[in-house]
Design a protein that fits this description.
The structure holds 2 protein chains of 2 kinds. By secondary structure, chain A is mainly alpha-helical. Chain A is about 75% helix and about 0% strand. Chain A is flat, with a radius of gyration of 26 Å. Chain B folds into 3 domains: about 80 residues, Up-down Bundle (Methane Monooxygenase Hydroxylase, Chain G, domain 1); about 110 residues, Beta Barrel (Periplasmic binding protein-like II); about 240 residues, Orthogonal Bundle (MetI-like fold). In chain B, helix 16 packs antiparallel against helix 17. At the A-B interface, helix 1, helix 4, strand 1, helix 5 and helix 6 of A face strand 1, helix 1, helix 3, helix 4 and helix 9 of B.
Chain lengths: ~300, ~525
C-alpha cells in the first residue's frame, strides 16, 4: 500500500513538473509571438488607421478604413511625389527580367559543367565561387563608375536606366546558383542523355526537351531566390538610379523616411504592406523549396 | 586557357561534333556582328578616356572570338553569356576597384589631366588695364542690345550677344552711315541710345557677353569695353600653368595645379597616388580614429548579431522540438512571419516604432516607467537598437535551420545518454550542441559575412548615426565599413572620394576573403568538387 502511494506521489510530482514545464513553454511562446508579430500588427493597424501620424497611432484603429491605400494609389498630391504603383511595377519588372536572364544563363552553364568534361573545369567552378565572395555590394564604387562609363557611350545602358541596373545584377548570376544547379544535373542519370544521343538528338535538344523539364524543382528555387534578391535590393538601385520614376519600390519607400516620416506614417504603412505582399505570397506558396535552398547556403536579403 | 571538349557519352557518330554549313555561316555572321559592335564600343570608350574599360572590353571580345571559333571550346559556348557578364560586371569591378584604390579619383579629381587643362584654359578673365574699346549701345524694339565697339586705332566692330564679333562696314549687316566719330548713326532693327538714356540700361549692358567662344567682350565702364583673355596658359615644356592676371605659377602637385603658396586650382585631375590612400589611414588621426572605431564595431556588430540570432533561434527550436506539444505547428508558423517580409521594409517600420519622441515603444515606456532610451542620439542606445532590430530580423532563420538539424539527430543518442544518467542540460551541451554545430557551422560563418556587410540595417535604420564628432570624413557611431564606404563615395558632404572608398573596400576584401577561406575549410565544398570529377 505504502509503496503504491509513494509511486503515486512520484507520479504526481512528475506530472506537476511536466505541467510547470508546459506552462513555461507556452509562456515563452507567448512572449516570442508578441515580439515577432508586434511590428507586423502595428504596421497593419497603422495602414488601416486613417489620417494618422506616428504620434497619434493606436493599436486598435479608430474608424478603420482603406483611406491610406486610396491616398497612396490615387491622390495626386501623393502620386506626384510618391508614384507608388510605378515603383511596384519597376520592382517587379527588374526582378522578373533579371530572374529570367539569370535562369537562362545558369541552367545552360550548369548543363555544360555537368555533362561535358573539359580541362580547367574544376578551377572554373572554384573560380566562380571565389568571385562571388565579392558581391557587387562590396565593389559598389567600381560598379557605379563602370555603369557611368558605359553610359557615356551607350546612354541606354548607363546610370538611371533599368537595363544598366539589370546588367549590374547579372554580374552575380553565376554564383552559388551554378553549384545548386550542377548538383541537380549530376543527380539526373546520364543514361537518359546517352539513349537520346543514340537516337540522334543534339545536345541542344537533350538540354531543352529532356533535362530542363526534369530540372523544374531546382529552377523554381533558384528563380525565387533570385527574384527575392533583386526585389529586396536597395543599395545598387539607390546608387545607379537617380530619378523618382525609375526607382524600385525599396528605394521609393526610403524617400518616406527622409522628409516627413512621422506625418506620413499611415500612408507609408500602406505602401510597406503592398510592397511586402508579393514576397510574402511567394513565401507562403513555396516555403518548403525556399527553406531547402536557404539551408544550402543562400542568404536572404 | 587550354580546354578540351569531349562529350561524356561513349561517342556515337554524333552530330554535335560536326556542323552543317549553314550553322557555320550563321555563327560567323553572329561573330562579325559582335565584333563590329565591340569595336565601335571600344573606340568610343577610348575617345572618352575610359582606357581601363576599353582594354577590358577588348580582352572580353577576344575571349568571345576564341570560344566561338575554337572547336575544342564547345562546352564554353554554353556559358559564354554568363562568362562575359561575369567578366565585365563581377571580375572587372573587382580589378577596377583595386586600380581606383591607388588613385585620388573623386570630387575635384574626376577628370584626366588633359580634360582638366582644357577646362582651365577655357577660363577667361577681364584684363583691367586694357580698356581696349570704346562703345556705343543700340536697342531693338524687343529690348535686345547691339553694341558698336571701337578700338583705339578707330576700327569699328559690331558685337551682338552670342554672335561672333565682326569688323563693321557701313552697308554691311544693317550698319548705317558713320558719323564724324566713326560710329554708325543707325543699325537696322535697333535704335541708338544717347549718352543719357544709356544710363538706364547700364546694369543690363554690363552683364552682356558680347561675342562668342574664344572672343568675348564685356562692357567694363561707361567709356570702355574689354575683350576677355584666357586666364591660364599652359606651358608644356615646364608642365606648369601661369595665371596671366597675377603671374602666379602653378605646378601639378597631388592631382591639382598648385601654386607655391599651396593654392590649388579646380578642377583637379586623376593621378596615381600609389598606397597613399592606405597610408592615410595610418597617419591621419582624424581618419584613423573613426576608422578603428568603425572596424571594431563592425566585428562586434557581426559577432553579436550572429550570436544573438543563433542563440534565440536555437532556444526556440529546442523548446518547440517536442512533437507532442499542442499548437507547435501554429507557434512556429507565427514565429516565421518576420522572415517572410522583406527585411528593408521591416527595418523602416522599426525606425518608426523606435522613434525616441513619438514612437510607440518610447511612448509606452514613458508611460510605464517614466524613462525611455534615446535610441537615435546616444551611441550606446543606437547600437543596442540596431542589434535589437537585427535580432528580430534574424532569429527565424536560425530557428528554421536548427529545427531542421535537430530532427536529424538520432533519438538513439538521447536514449543512450538517458540510460547513462545524463540530465537534460548535459544532453544539450554534450550531444545536441556539438552535433548541431557541425551541421550549422558553415551557415554561422556565412551569416557572419552577411552581417559584416549588412548595409541595409545600418543605413535604413539610422544612416550610421549619431555622428562621431571630429571625424575627418562623415562617420557615425553605428557605421560599419560598408556604410562608411557608401558615405565616402556617394553621400559625403565633402563630395565623392572614390579613391579612398575603394581603398577601404580593399580592407573589407581582406577580411571577407579570410572568413570565406575559413568557411571553405568548414564546408569541405572544395574537396567535394575534387571528388566529383
Amino acid at each position: 500500500m505504502s509503496s503504491s502511494s509513494l509511486l503515486q506521489d512520484l507520479r504526481g510530482s512528475r506530472r506537476r513538473q511536466r505541467q510547470v514545464k508546459l506552462v513555461l513553454t507556452y509562456l515563452f511562446a507567448a512572449v516570442m509571438i508578441v515580439f515577432a508579430l508586434f511590428p507586423v500588427v502595428w504596421i497593419l493597424s497603422a495602414s488601416l488607421n486613417p489620417g494618422n501620424t506616428l504620434a497619434t497611432q493606436t493599436l486598435i484603429p479608430r474608424n478603420a478604413g482603406l483611406q491610406n491605400f486610396e491616398m497612396l494609389l490615387t491622390d495626386s498630391a501623393y502620386t506626384q511625389a510618391y508614384p507608388f504603383t510605378r515603383w511596384l511595377f519597376n520592382s517587379i519588372k527588374l526582378a522578373g527580367l533579371t530572374t529570367l536572364c539569370s535562369i537562362s544563363i545558369t541552367t545552360a552553364a550548369a548543363y555544360a559543367f555537368s555533362r561535358f568534361r573539359f580541362r580547367q573545369r574544376h578551377n572554373m567552378l572554384r573560380g566562380i565561387l571565389l568571385i562571388q565572395m565579392f558581391p557587387s555590394l562590396l565593389v559598389m564604387v567600381a560598379v557605379f563608375l563602370l555603369i557611368q562609363q558605359i553610359g557615356n557611350v551607350i546612354p541606354a545602358l548607363g546610370l538611371n536606366t533599368h537595363s544598366g541596373l539589370i546588367l549590374a545584377y547579372l554580374g552575380g548570376a553565376m554564383g552559388i546558383n551554378i553549384w545548386l544547379m550542377k548538383g541537380y544535373f549530376d543527380s539526373i542519370p546520364r543514361e537518359i542523355d546517352e539513349s537520346a544521343m543514340v537516337d540522334g538528338a543534339t545536345h541542344w535538344q537533350i538540354f531543352t526537351r529532356l533535362l530542363v523539364p526534369l530540372m523544374r524543382p531546382i529552377i523554381v528555387v533558384v528563380a525565387v531566390l533570385s527574384f527575392i534578391f533583386v526585389y529586396s535590393d536597395f543599395l545598387i538601385a539607390r546608387i545607379l538610379l537617380k530619378t523618382t520614376e525609375q526607382y524600385p519600390m525599396t528605394v521609393g519607400l526610403y524617400i518616406f523616411t527622409s522628409g516627413q516620416f512621422a506625418q506620413q506614417w499611415g500612408v507609408f504603412a500602406a505602401g510597406a504592406l503592398m510592397g511586402a505582399l508579393p514576397i510574402v505570397i511567394i513565401y507562403l506558396i513555396l516555403q518548403d523549396q525556399i527553406v531547402g535552398g536557404l539551408t544550402q547556403g543562400a542568404v536572404k536579403g | 586557357m587550354t580546354t578540351q571538349a569531349q562529350a561524356t557519352a561513349p561517342k556515337p557518330p554524333t552530330r554535335s561534333g560536326s556542323t552543317t554549313v549553314s550553322q557555320l555561316v550563321s555563327r560567323l555572321v553572329l561573330l562579325a556582328l559582335i565584333d563590329a559592335f565591340a569595336s565601335w564600343f571600344i573606340l568610343n570608350l577610348w575617345s572618352q578616356d575610359s582606357l581601363v574599360l576599353a582594354i577590358a572590353t577588348a580582352l572580353v571580345t577576344l575571349f568571345i572570338n576564341v570560344v566561338i571559333l575554337h572547336k575544342n571550346l564547345y562546352p564554353l559556348r554554353w556559358m559564354l553569356v554568363g562568362l562575359v557578364l561575369l567578366g565585365l560586371f563581377a571580375i572587372y569591378p573587382i580589378l577596377y576597384n583595386v586600380y581606383v584604390s591607388t588613385t585620388n579619383y573623386g570630387f575635384g579629381h574626376l577628370l584626366t589631366k588633359e580634360q582638366a587643362l582644357e577646362r582651365l584654359e577655357g577660363t577667361m578673365y577681364l584684363p583691367e588695364e586694357a580698356g581696349a574699346y570704346t562703345w556705343t549701345a543700340y536697342i531693338s524694339q524687343a529690348g535686345e542690345f547691339a553694341v558698336w565697339l571701337q578700338s583705339a586705332d578707330g576700327q569699328g566692330f559690331l558685337a551682338l550677344p552670342d554672335q561672333e564679333i565682326a569688323p563693321g562696314q557701313p552697308g554691311e549687316r544693317g550698319v548705317g552711315e558713320l558719323d564724324s566719330d566713326g560710329i554708325p548713326v543707325t543699325i537696322e532693327g535697333y535704335e541708338r541710345l544717347s549718352r543719357l538714356t544709356v544710363l538706364r540700361y547700364i546694369e543690363e549692358l554690363g552683364q552682356l557677353s558680347l561675342g562668342q567662344a574664344e572672343r568675348i567682350a564685356r562692357i567694363t565702364s561707361l567709356d570702355s569695353a574689354s575683350e576677355l583673355q584666357p586666364l591660364y596658359v599652359y606651358d608644356p615644356a615646364e608642365d606648369v600653368i601661369v595665371n596671366q592676371q597675377t603671374g602666379v605659377v602653378y605646378s601639378p602637385i597631388e592631382g591639382a595645379f598648385t601654386s607655391s603658396r599651396g593654392e590649388a586650382l579646380t578642377p583637379g585631375f586623376q593621378i596615381s597616388v600609389g598606397l597613399d590612400n592606405f597610408r592615410q589611414f595610418l597617419r591621419s588621426p582624424a581618419l584613423q580614429g573613426p576608422l578603428v572605431r568603425i572596424i571594431l564595431w563592425n566585428f562586434a556588430f557581426a559577432f553579436l548579431s550572429v550570436g544573438m540570432t543563433f542563440a534565440l533561434g536555437l532556444t526556440i527550436a529546442v523548446v518547440f522540438n517536442d512533437r507532442t506539444l499542442r499548437g507547435r505547428k501554429l507557434i512556429t508558423t507565427l514565429l516565421l512571419i518576420p522572415y517572410t517580409i522583406p527585411s528593408l521594409i521591416t527595418i523602416m517600420v522599426w525606425r518608426g516604432m523606435l522613434n525616441p519622441e513619438i514612437g510607440i515603444i518610447n511612448r509606452t515606456l514613458e508611460a510605464l516607467i517614466g524613462w525611455a532610451p534615446p535610441w537615435f542620439t546616444d551611441p550606446f542606445w543606437a547600437k543596442a537598437a540596431v542589434l535589437l532590430v537585427n535580432l528580430w530580423l534574424g532569429f527565424p532563420y536560425f530557428m528554421l535551420i536548427c529545427s531542421g538539424a535537430l530532427q536529424a539527430v538520432s533519438p538513439d543518442l538521447y536514449n543512450a545518454a538517458e540510460v547513462d544518467g545524463a540530465n537534460t542540460w548535459q544532453r544539450f551541451w554534450k550531444i545536441t550542441l556539438p552535433l548541431l554545430l557541425v551541421a550549422v557551422g558553415p551557415l554561422l560563418v556565412a551569416s557572419f559575412v552577411f552581417n559584416f556587410n549588412n548595409f541595409n540595417i545600418i543605413f535604413l535604420f539610422i544612416e550610421g548615426g549619431p555622428p562621431i564628432a571630429g571625424a575627418a570624413t562623415e562617420a557615425g557611431h553605428t557605421d560599419i565599413l560598408i556604410s562608411y564606404v557608401y558615405n565616402l563615395a556617394f553621400a559625403g558632404g565633402r563630395g565623392a572620394q572614390y579613391g579612398l572608398a575603394a581603398a577601404i573596400t580593399m580592407v573589407i576584401f581582406l577580411i571577407v576573403a579570410g572568413l570565406t577561406l575559413f568557411q571553405f575549410r568548414f564546408t569541405r565544398m572544395w574537396e567535394e568538387v575534387s571528388e566529383n570529377v
